[in-house]
Amino acid sequence: MLQCNFQFQYADFNLTAELNMQDQLLGIMGASGSGKSTLLKNIAGVLQPFKGSIVLNQYSLFDDQQRINVPMYKRRVALIFQKAWLFPHMNVQQNLRYAEHVCTSANRKFSFHQVVDLLELKTLLRRQAYQLSGGEAQRVSIGRALLSSPDLLLLDEPLAGLDQRLKDQILPFLNIVKEQTCLPMIYVTHHPEELAYLNAQVMCMEKGKIS
After folding, report:
1. Angle of CA points 72, 75, 77, to nearest 5°
2. Which parts of the sequence belong to the ABC transporter domain (predicted)?
3. Under CATH, which architecture does the 24-37+71-210 domain have?
4. Structural domain boundaries of the chain?
5. Of 95, 147, 162, 182, which shows the fewest CB atoms inside 10 Å?
């Protein structure tokens, strides 16, 4: 489904990724600075490798030999960061609806109401983004990612900075997304208990290499 074989170099940092994702949820662990976030950014198109290929569902996202580098907005890959990046001048409903513009109605995988129900966002729809708690904002961020109808969902330490109470709120929602959407996901974290809860396949990254 996802095949990565590329090299990335920035300053004194080198990343060599060989990844063949088979399971629906792949967890990647590693120390800070090991290259986990850089890996996700290369897959999403935020960063560009200098060599290799990235293939999703038999569609080349990057290939240096064929000079292919699909722009980020065309990759059908959603990346959720540690901090929920919402439009502060919009309410929750407007933030969610914004994601629907990136795909045609024929290609939509989830309906607005399906995502709202899935993540229990109905009571938050009229609330401004800046009024949300950290856990609420991250739920909206996940919902917006789903409404962009991606073929792959990348989560870069989505629970970082949240206290245990909020983590305990978000993890069940992530499990619901996993169980009910069948959407392939790569989940980066420092915390093995999160991956255990989600029953993820786990790989480790050390000094820019996955094992």
Report:
1. 95
2. 1-211
3. 3-Layer(aba) Sandwich (3.40)
4. 24-37+71-210
5. 182
Q: Is 17 exposed, middle or buried (0-12, 13-18, 19+ CB in 10 A)?
A: buried
Per-residue tens of pLDDT for the chain, all 211 residues: 688 887 877 656 677 777 777 678 999 998 888 889 989 999 999 999 988 999 998 899 999 999 999 999 899 999 998 888 899 999 999 999 998 887 777 778 888 999 999 888 999 999 999 999 888 999 999 999 999 999 999 999 998 878 888 788 889 988 988 888 888 999 999 899 999 999 999 989 888 888 7
| Residue 159 in tokens | 């629970």
Dihedral, 123, 97, 140, 78 alpha carbons, nearest 10: 160
